[in-house]
């Protein structure tokens, strides 16, 4: 069955090129999302979180079904989505979580967090990106390498246009795109980073990066890497890594998946909750201050036992 659910229910296909649904001798699903890549990334996030909950023993079963069986079903479904990039992110995410657990350090996540901004800086500084095409050709196949090369060629055009207004960009209405002499649009925007650079400039790109990376950094601030193997922290650490994988995906795709802003909000809320709990704990551990009424009665009682001269001196001194 080819991806026809969206057309059957809503009457149209969300993506104009049906050929992008053809993969590895079959089709990849798009369900009700705007592209099969979005479905693949969605399945990657759910699968990675479930695998880490199973790996740390945070949960043994769900509705009576062993969590290991559910993980196997999720992995199989992620494979059937036939999204090479999403599967690579799944392997990378699990490696980061396992590395953090074994090393008792959050350095693996920090390294992955640096990859998207490093790529953006390198591309805007003049790096061609051709070594990345060669790497994909060796590790995957020529078809995927051609896809990466196509994206890089279009990025070159869009970067050159964006750097004419680097601070705040060209705003919307297609002004950041590239047109030929006849006015035809000859650019294709794939990555969210180049879309943001063209429309909002460096200010918008930096703001986007901070919004997506800050929650993971805040989690590392309140829970150092030595705690990341704790089963009680498993859902939060998995979400932090998934959010970081979303940053990497934004380099090559502009799917605008709402999962990652939701993850950022949940981790930000966890950070504020932990800070509030720690402040309450610190206040409760301090010696209780003497209440004003008790202090007043103490002064009065001590003054009552004194001679008139000492009483007047005590009151004046008070």
- The amount of helix comes to 55-70%
Strand content: under 5%
Distance between the termini: 88 Å
> How many whole angstroms does the radius of gyration measure?
28 Å
**SS-based structural class?**
mainly alpha
Stretches where pLDDT is under 50 for at least 5 consecutive residues are: 289-308, 313-318
Query: What general form does the structure show?
Result: globular
**Strand/helix succession:** HEEHEEHHHHHHHHHH
Number of helices: 12
What is the typical, i.e. mean, pLDDT? 82
Major sheet attributes: 2 strands, antiparallel
DSSP strand count = 4
Order of the strands making up the biggest sheet: 1-2
Characterization of the model:
The chain has 318 residues and is an all-alpha fold. The protein has a domain at 104-285. Helices cover 66% and strands 3% of the residues. It contains twelve helices and four strands; from the N terminus they run αββαββαααααααααα. The chain has helices at 5-10, 36-56, 67-80, 84-103, 107-124, 130-139, 142-162, 192-222, 234-252, 259-285, 292-304, 308-317, and strands spanning 22-23, 26-27, 61-62, 65-66. It has a two-stranded antiparallel ribbon with strand order 1-2. Strands 3-4 form a two-stranded antiparallel ribbon. A hairpin with a 2-residue loop joins strand 1 (22-23) and strand 2 (26-27). Helix 2 packs antiparallel against helix 9. The model is unreliable at 289-308 and 313-318 (pLDDT under 50).
């Amino acid at each position: 069955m080819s991806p026809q659910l969206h057309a059957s229910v809503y009457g149209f296909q969300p993506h104009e090129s049906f050929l992008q649904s053809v993969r590895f001798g079959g089709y990849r699903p798009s369900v009700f999302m705007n592209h099969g890549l979005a479905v693949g990334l969605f399945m990657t996030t759910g699968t990675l979180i479930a695998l880490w909950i199973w790996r740390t023993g945070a949960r043994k079963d769900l509705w009576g079904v062993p969590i290991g069986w559910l993980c196997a079903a999720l992995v199989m479904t992620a494979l059937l989505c036939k999204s090479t990039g999403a599967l690579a992110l799944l392997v990378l995410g699990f490696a980061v979580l396992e590395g953090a657990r074994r090393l008792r350090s959050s350095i693996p996540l920090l390294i992955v967090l640096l990859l998207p901004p490093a790529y953006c800086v390198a591309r805007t500084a003049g790096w061609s990106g051709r070594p990345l095409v060669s790497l994909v050709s060796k590790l995957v196949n020529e078809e995927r390498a051609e896809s990466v090369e196509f994206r890089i060629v279009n990025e070159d055009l869009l970067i050159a246009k964006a750097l004419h207004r680097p601070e705040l960009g060209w705003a919307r209405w297609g002004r950041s795109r590239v047109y030929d002499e006849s006015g035809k649009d000859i650019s294709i925007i794939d990555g969210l980073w180049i879309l943001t650079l063209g429309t909002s400039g460096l200010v918008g790109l930096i703001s986007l990066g901070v919004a997506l990376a800050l929650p993971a950094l805040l989690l590392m601030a309140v829970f150092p890497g030595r705690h990341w193997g704790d089963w009680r922290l498993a859902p939060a650490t998995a979400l932090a890594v998934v959010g970081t994988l979303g940053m990497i995906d934004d380099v090559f795709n502009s799917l605008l998946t709402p999962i990652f802003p939701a993850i950022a909000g949940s981790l930000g809320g966890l950070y504020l909750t932990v800070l509030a709990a720690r402040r309450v704990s610190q206040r409760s551990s301090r010696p209780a201050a003497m209440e004003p009424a008790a202090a007043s009665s103490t002064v009065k009682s001590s003054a009552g036992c004194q001679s008139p001269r000492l009483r007047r001196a005590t009151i004046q001194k008070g």
